[in-house]
UniProtKB/TrEMBL annotation, chain A:
Enzyme class per UniProt: translocase
Role description: Subunits I and II form the functional core of the enzyme complex. Electrons originating in cytochrome c are transferred via heme a and Cu(A) to the binuclear center formed by heme a3 and Cu(B).
Region (Disordered) location: 39-59
Catalytic activity: 4 Fe(II)-[cytochrome c] + O2 + 8 H(+)(in) = 4 Fe(III)-[cytochrome c] + 2 H2O + 4 H(+)(out)
Name of the protein: Cytochrome c oxidase subunit 2
PROSITE patterns: COX2, COX2_CUA, COX2_TM, CYTC
Annotated gene: ctaC
Organism: Candidatus Accumulibacter appositus
Domain Cytochrome c positions: 336-416
Keywords carried by this UniProt record: Copper, Electron transport, Heme, Iron, Membrane, Metal-binding, Oxidoreductase, Respiratory chain, Translocase, Transmembrane, Transmembrane helix, Transport
UniProtKB/TrEMBL annotation, chain B:
Membrane topology, record value: Multi-pass membrane protein
Organism: Candidatus Accumulibacter appositus
UniProt lineage: Bacteria, Pseudomonadati, Pseudomonadota, Betaproteobacteria, Candidatus Accumulibacter
Catalyzed reaction equations: 4 Fe(II)-[cytochrome c] + O2 + 8 H(+)(in) = 4 Fe(III)-[cytochrome c] + 2 H2O + 4 H(+)(out)
Region Disordered: start-end pairs: 1-20
Gene designation: ctaD
EC number(s) recorded for this UniProt protein: 7.1.1.9
Annotated family: Belongs to the heme-copper respiratory oxidase family.
Compartment annotation: Cell membrane; Membrane
Gene3D superfamilies, per database record: Cytochrome c oxidase-like, subunit I domain
Protein name in the entry: Cytochrome c oxidase subunit 1
Pfam family membership, one: COX1
Length: 435, 536
């Protein structure tokens, strides 16, 4: 299933007023019948009712308009792997459900207003034509009517304001969380840090895992194209999770539609939001504030798991933390460091400086043969630690350990044509940190 | 468009005898409101094509998932320039062009109050346009921040950002000068007997718009100047590290940005308030309430800015206040729609191209307004903010609202400007193609937004693929349909059936009492203002 939420679909009523009406699609199956064009609308409708199984094609309705659109789409069978979502994603929290219901209410209000107003217009267009010999009346004022259509809409708005206010008050109540996670936006990845609860202290980065070849159309796109990460945020089901957002460089936005959560991550400030997921599953969202080149490539993935699985996951993380706790006195060899450095580089640097070290000048300079990468070691390390203000070059001091920074700097100095053959020990990085 | 001078009008002496320069010097040195109006309109059309081409690059890239034609950086530059050019280069100058042409003729004035400043406020535009478009070619490219220019992202940009900042400064100066001119003209140069409450509604909308511009453009200029000093002179207005706040910029920007929405919408309302009565052959319904609604919208527009910022972490009380204030705007806007609908009621309707565009405006602008009501609800907006729902919403307001209204005005007044009737068949083709393709392009974007597709992304997950294809087809169809208007205008400038001084039998106003094409100089003596030509 291609909606962001995993779980049973709500049976949602189709929105009959739209130009074309499609019903929910299930499964990953091909998009629509390619017999489009010659088929009668009635048959499609029958199919729509019968097919509720995996692989059911989407169902067009509404006679000729539907066929016209279907015909157009028939031309583009290459995009067969998609869904005709017409509404908000299936809510996975009580707040999201309230938002969903509020939106449905508003939708009906505006549809009724629209139909009411344009029924009057349609009547005029049909009956008050000059070609039908209709003579224009001369009236141009009517205080009663004008007062009525000022007051009545105002009353409708007041009525809407009540549910809108209470939904919002709910949404903003971040008090008494079971678990608090700090989310930091980076160009272009998310950092998660568990502040309270069993997992307190667990901290990692979450990076897009869609292979570059898929983005460049050199490989078929996977099911969760652009909505998959190496390490999702893991939270227990049914617990109130408070999310604190901040950012390292520019404003990002942490958003999960199924939770009705969307909060800016502002550098230098903390914002908060919360959710209590009702069902286990994987929930997907994306950065929702333009944050530069790879804004479209930093998804949010939240894995909601049972309490037991959560406890097991926390145990694993703690173990790993202990295992990886680096021995600061370990002496690295060239090969060891190169392997680690390449990994760190791919995750943190390659988006801008590119895997081949050639960068995307002038905004993202080349490292291959660059003055910094071939210059003094200390200056190079400091650049990575502190970044360069006014550019997209971030300060990695808080993001990466001494070991990682030593490895990545050494990698940059040894890779491509740089070949300086240097090994950098973590202690050297540590010495430069304080400065 | 006004190419020939008309002589012998109403027994006056020959106006060509003033000896104004000809050739290119005429256009560079002109202080004539009609010449300047024409230049504004041509300028805006050129910018419309440039901005439109950029939108087609965007839609081409989004036609299928994956990166096809442009890099993500260039994509961001395109979406930024598309918006800046359409807002500041196309829509705003178009309505200033209408104002220049029509306001003096509507109020019986001989020209704008400050004729030389009028020349300058136009000639500031081309340098600004060149700065904006040329920024694509400098190292680092154009600003890739979105038209909102939010820091800290805008601090990271290259010199293209500085060029955009200076362009905004220059455009702001031009707008402020134009506005002072319009306010002075309207308040001081109306023909005797035309009280404010007898003034044509287009002038009313521009009077309020001009005040909005004078009040809001300096605020934008201040915001981008602070950006500039943050970028180059070590200040930190918008950097937390130096004691500033990135969100401060958003408050300042939207304190300008929301009135800006009405700066674009109000003149559009004005045009439609002339076209609908003319083709209904019936006076505008509720003139007085229209005026109050315009004033109310103008005023409230300054108190709702943070509804663009519901997800930035403003406090709950702030969210509630801005939600209620935003809902309030629906009331005067509703009054206007109801008035237009009632104007048509029991009229004697015909459907020439201006009326078709006005009706298209009415239907689509109402859709945009109603989705605006949905977005006003903070809780729902948080779901929809920065998704394609918002993109759909503001294109319904900006394209179907402002642009359709500008076309209604263009077809309505073209006979007066050129002295020829335009080709009605082509005009109708233009309308229907625009109407159909516009909806194919933008209606599906509501669904994309509801399903959660963020805006400003060059590539997207696969469940969004189909609606993007439809949207792409619509965008290309809409884009190429706009070339028709060029044909129509060229034909009408070159020849065609001669237009009477009042080519539309239902049209009222002083502008229809002068011959078509309007002579180079009109109303050198204040005309007699007849109640029959009054709007109310």
């Amino acid at each position: 299933m291609l909606t962001f939420a995993v779980g049973k679909k709500l049976e949602r009523s189709p929105l009959g007023f739209f130009l074309v009406r499609f019903r929910e699609r299930q499964g990953l199956a091909p998009m629509f019948c390619h017999t489009a064009g010659g088929e009668a609308g009635g048959e499609r409708e029958k199919m729509a009712r019968n097919s509720n199984s995996k692989g059911g094609s989407n169902r067009l309705r509404r006679g000729s308009t539907g066929l016209f659109i279907a015909g157009l789409l028939g031309l583009f069978s290459s995009v067969a792997n998609a869904a005709w979502e017409l509404n908000l994603q299936e809510p996975a929290t009580a707040v999201a459900r309230r938002v969903y219901e509020l939106h449905t209410l508003l939708l009906w209000v505006i549809v009724v207003i629209f139909v009411g107003v344009f029924a009057v217009v349609a009547y005029s267009l049909v009956y008050h034509r000059k070609s039908k010999g209709h003579k224009a009346a001369g009236f141009h004022d009517n205080t009663t009517v004008e007062l009525a259509w000022t007051i009545v809409p105002a009353l409708i708005l007041v009525a809407i304001a009540f549910p809108a206010t209470s939904a919002l008050v709910d949404m903003r109540d971040t008090s008494e969380p079971d678990l608090t996670v700090k989310v930091t936006g980076y160009q272009w990845k998310w950092g998660y840090e568990y502040l309270t609860g069993d997992a307190a202290g667990v901290k990692y980065m979450s990076v897009l895992s869609t292979p570059r070849e898929q983005i460049e159309n050199k490989a078929p796109k996977g099911e969760h194209y652009l909505l998959e990460v190496d390490r999702p945020l893991v939270v227990p089901v049914g617990k109130k999770v408070r999310i604190l957002t901040t950012a390292n460089d520019v404003i990002h936005n942490w958003s999960v539609p199924a939770f009705a959560v969307k909060t800016d991550a502002v550098p230098g400030f903390l914002r908060d939001t919360w959710f209590r997921a009702e069902k286990e599953g994987t929930y997907r969202g994306q950065c929702s504030e333009l944050c530069g080149k790879d804004h479209g490539f930093m998804p949010v993935v939240v894995e909601v798991v049972s309490e037991e699985r959560y406890a097991a996951w926390v145990g694993e993380q703690k173990q790993q933390l202990a295992a990886v706790a680096e021995d600061p006195n370990k002496v690295w060899t060239l090969d060891e460091q190169h392997a680690l450095g390449e990994k760190v580089y791919t995750t943190n640097c390659a988006a801008c400086h590119q895997a081949n070290g050639e960068g995307l000048p002038p905004a993202f300079p080349a490292l291959d043969g660059s003055a910094v990468a071939k210059g003094p070691q200390a200056a190079h390390i400091e650049m990575v630690l502190k970044g360069k203000t006014g550019t997209a070059m971030a300060a990695f001091a808080e993001q990466l350990s001494d070991t990682d920074i030593a490895a990545v700097v050494a990698y940059e100095r040894n890779a491509w044509s740089n070949k300086l053959g240097e090994v950098i020990q973590p202690a050297e990085v540590k010495a430069l940190r304080g400065k | 468009m006004q190419a020939t001078s008309h002589t012998g009008y109403a027994g006056h002496h020959d106006h060509d005898s003033h000896g104004h320069p000809t050739g290119w010097k005429r256009w560079v040195t002109t202080t004539n409101h009609k010449d300047i109006g024409s230049m504004y309109l041509w300028f805006s059309f050129v910018m419309f094509l440039v901005g439109g081409a950029m939108s087609l690059i965007i839609r081409a890239e989004l036609f299928t998932p994956g990166l096809q034609y442009v890099s993500p950086e260039f994509y961001n530059q395109m979406l930024t320039l598309h918006a800046l050019i359409m807002v500041f280069g196309a829509i705003m100058p178009a309505f200033v062009g209408f104002a220049n042409w029509m306001i003096p003729m509507m109020i019986g004035a001989s020209d704008m109050a400050f004729a030389r400043m009028n020349n300058w406020s136009f000639w500031l535009l081309p340098p600004a346009a060149i700065l904006l478009t040329a920024s694509i070619f400098v190292p680092g490219g154009a600003a890739g921040t979105g038209w909102t220019l939010y820091p800290p992202l805008s601090i990271q940009m290259g010199m293209g950002m500085d060029m955009a900042i200076f362009a905004v400064h220059i455009l702001g100066m031009s707008s402020i000068m134009g506005s002072i001119n319009i306010v002075t003209t309207i308040l001081n140069m109306r023909t005797p007997g035309m009280t404010l409450m007898k003034m044509p509604l287009f002038c009313w909308t521009w009077l309020v718009t001009a005040f909005l511009l004078i009040a809001s453009m300096p605020i934008l200029a201040g915001a981008v100047t602070m950006l500039l000093t943050d970028r180059h002179f070590g200040t930190s207005f918008f950097s937390a590290a130096g004691g500033g706040d990135p969100v401060l910029f958003q408050h300042i920007f939207w304190f300008f940005g929301h009135p800006e929405v009405y700066i674009i919408a109000l003149p559009a309302f004005g045009v439609v308030s002339h076209v609908i009565p003319a083709f209904s052959r019936k006076p505008l319904f509720g003139y007085v309430s229209m005026v109050y609604a315009i004033a109310a919208i103008g005023l409230i527009s300054f108190f709702v800015w943070a509804h663009h910022m519901y997800v930035t972490g403003i406090p709950l009380t702030g969210q509630l206040y801005f939600m209620y204030a935003t809902m309030l705007i629906a009331v005067p806007t509703g009054v206007k729609v109801f008035n237009w609908v009632t104007t048509m009621w029991r009229g004697s309707l015909t459907f020439e191209t201006p009326m078709l565009f006005a009706l298209g405006f009415l239907v689509l602008f109402t859709i945009g307004g109603l989705t605006g009501l949905v977005l006003a609800m903070t809780a729902v907006d948080i779901q929809l903010q920065d998704t394609y729902y918002v993109v759909a919403h503001f294109h319904y307001v900006m394209v179907a609202g402002a642009l359709f209204s500008a076309y209604a005005g263009l077809y309505f007044w073209l006979p007066k400007w050129t002295g020829h009737m335009y080709n009605e068949t082509l005009g109708k083709w233009h309308f229907w193609l625009s109407m159909i393709f516009f909806n194919i392009a933008f209606f599906p974007q509501h669904f994309l937004g509801l399903a959660g597709m963020p805006r400003r992304i060059p590539d997207y997950a696969q469940q969004f693929a189909d609606f993007n294809v439809i949207s792409g087809i619509g965008a290309f169809g809409f884009g190429f349909s706009q070339l028709l208007v060029l044909v129509v205008v060229f034909q009408a400038v070159k020849g065609g059936a001669r237009a009477a001084s009042r080519p539309w039998d239902g049209a009222h106003g002083l502008e229809w009492t002068v011959p078509s094409p309007a002579p180079y100089h009109t109303f050198e003596d204040p005309p007699h203002f007849d109640q029959a030509e009054a709007h109310g």
